[in-house]
Design a protein that fits this description.
By secondary structure, the chain is α/β, with parallel strands linked by helices. The protein is about 35% helix and about 20% strand. It contains nine helices and eight strands. It has an eight-stranded mixed beta sheet, with helices on both faces. The protein is globular and about 50 Å long.
């Protein structure tokens, strides 16, 4: 599977920088490195009507969030809860600030970005608990904040896609909040890193198998956690009755196959799910829309799907494209 030219360009930049992989750093050093490079290929900073930092009540203390309001809404606004990537170890409100601004403007909705607790200081299921607590707070306090409780979505990329998928299942089980849509960008969904794409792209494609193992070792308390669907949503026994989904994967990404499998499982359970595979792309191309055309297309697709699905009075059912999905 050939890399796209723009993906090769990114990998050339990485090789020339000769920076250590996260797995060769301490978690603190990895976070600092992630923050330092987060905006290098990110979109330009989009000015919005209002951007506000707040703290929500969580199961272990306050949960910092950043709320993006793209314009002055004259009626209750739709809202998307965004859960950032970073292997449950790195990532922050700041490192995803520019992407959230673009999504809020493109989707014409409020975006609530969640700064959930990170491992290894806070191991599984701390990130799940914080993410779901924030999602429930948004549903419970939507009206008080000028948002529409009937138009709530959950979204995330990579580890955040994992958390978004899990939150959608938990919301169905607890019958709150009622979600209109889920956006899952190259979500981590499998219990073990043993798929064909994990083996095929283990080295040389930015996200390596060594880094994935390092993330998992920091996040999990023990091997028993791998049997919990809150870690690996592919293990969920019942995926019926979930909100419509857009699953975005990259062709040259170790997480590709588990994202495809999860989309197929959603469909098999009777859910509406659009699956798009971006050819020649690598993990985490979605965050590189300041430099990559494929990333701009993916972000535009995601924003348009959110906008359609959160439009009043009801969700618009999208067709399944399966663009260039490996067989």
């Amino acid at each position: 599977m050939p890399l796209a030219d723009e993906a090769r360009w990114v990998l050339d930049l990485v090789r020339r920088a000769d920076a250590p992989e996260y797995c060769d750093l301490t978690p603190g050093e990895a976070r600092a490195a992630h923050e330092a490079r987060a905006d290098k290929l990110a979109p330009a900073k989009r000015e919005l009507h209002r951007v506000e930092d707040r703290e929500l009540p969580g199961p272990a203390g306050v949960i910092p969030v950043r709320i993006y309001t793209p314009r002055a809404f004259t009626a209750p606004a739709p809202v998307t809860v965004w859960l950032h990537g970073g292997g449950h170890v790195v990532g922050s409100l700041d490192s995803y600030d520019r992407l959230c601004r673009v999504l809020a403007a493109g989707a014409d909705c409020v975006v609530v970005s969640v700064d959930y607790r990170l491992a290894p200081e806070h191991k599984f299921p701390a990130a799940v608990e914080d993410s779901f607590a924030a999602l429930c707070w948004v549903g419970d306090h939507a009206a008080a904040n000028g948002w529409d409780p009937a138009r709530v979505a959950v979204a995330g990329d990579s580890a955040g896609g994992n958390l978004a998928a899990v939150c959608a299942i938990l919301a169905r089980e607890q019958r709150a909040p009622a979600l209109r849509f889920q956006l899952l960008v190259y979500p981590a969904t499998a219990a073990h890193a043993d798929s064909q794409s994990q083996r095929e792209f283990a080295e040389g494609h930015l996200l390596t198998r060594r880094v994935i193992a390092w993330f998992q070792d920091h996040y999990l308390r023990n091997d028993a956690d791998r049997t919990d669907f809150r870690y690996a949503p592919l293990l969920a026994s019942d995926l019926a009755g979930l909100p419509p989904a857009l699953v975005v994967v990259a062709e040259c990404d170790p997480l590709r196959d588990e994202g495809i499998e999860y989309a197929e499982r959603l469909r098999a359970a009777g859910n509406v799910c659009t699956l798009t595979c971006y050819p020649g792309m690598i993990h985490p191309f979605f965050s590189m829309s300041g430099a990559l055309q494929s990333a701009r297309e993916a972000v535009d697709e995601a924003a348009a799907a959110l906008r359609r699905s959160l439009a009043a009075p009801g969700p618009e059912v999208t067709s399944s494209s399966d663009r260039d999905v490996p067989q």
